[in-house]
Specification:
With 137 residues, this protein is of the alpha+beta class. It has a domain of 92 residues: Arc Repressor Mutant, subunit A (Orthogonal Bundle). The chain is built from 5 helices and 5 strands; from the N terminus they run E-E-H-E-H-E-H-H-E-H. The protein has a 3-stranded antiparallel beta sheet. Strands 1-2 form a two-stranded antiparallel sheet. The longest helix is centred in the last third of the chain and has 13 residues. It is globular.
């Protein structure tokens, strides 16, 4: 007997499991997020969650020497994204994303555009772009 299920249209095959991204933790996995960062919990440079990140790598660059996490961030940031967006889209903790992006920036794999603070207040245009991006999610 095949593993088919009944639905309103008749018998149908079971749904296919969705592949997980390299950064989506398997619920049964014993690996903790800090293992991805080598145990570090803070980035080497201060990185605001609204900072914008863009990929600095060519589209057809050889990725065999970088980690799957770096690959996913690099591919995602071909479009400019905030650090918070990267965290949300890859479903990994913000602190881990900050550490990874700071390391990638030091290696020249991404460009980080920190918000310009005017007397301690963020740029209104930047906040509007971040809000627009969050609404698209």
């Amino acid at each position: 007997m095949t593993d088919q299920r009944w639905n309103s249209g008749g018998w149908a095959p079971p749904p296919r499991p969705q592949p997980q991204s390299p950064l989506q933790p398997d619920p049964a996995s014993p690996v903790r997020p800090y293992a991805v960062t080598g145990g570090r919990t803070a980035p080497r440079v201060k990185l605001a969650m609204e900072a914008l990140v863009s990929s600095a790598t060519a589209e057809h660059r050889e990725f065999s020497h970088i980690t799957p996490e770096y690959q996913a961030i690099s591919q995602l940031c071909r479009q400019v994204r905030s650090v918070a967006e990267v965290s949300a889209l890859l479903r990994i903790p913000l602190g881990v994303v900050r550490v990874l992006i700071a390391d990638m920036a030091a290696e020249g794999l991404v460009r980080v555009h920190q918000p310009q603070l005017d007397a301690g207040r963020p740029d209104v245009n930047l906040l509007e772009r971040v809000l627009s991006g969050l609404r698209r999610l």
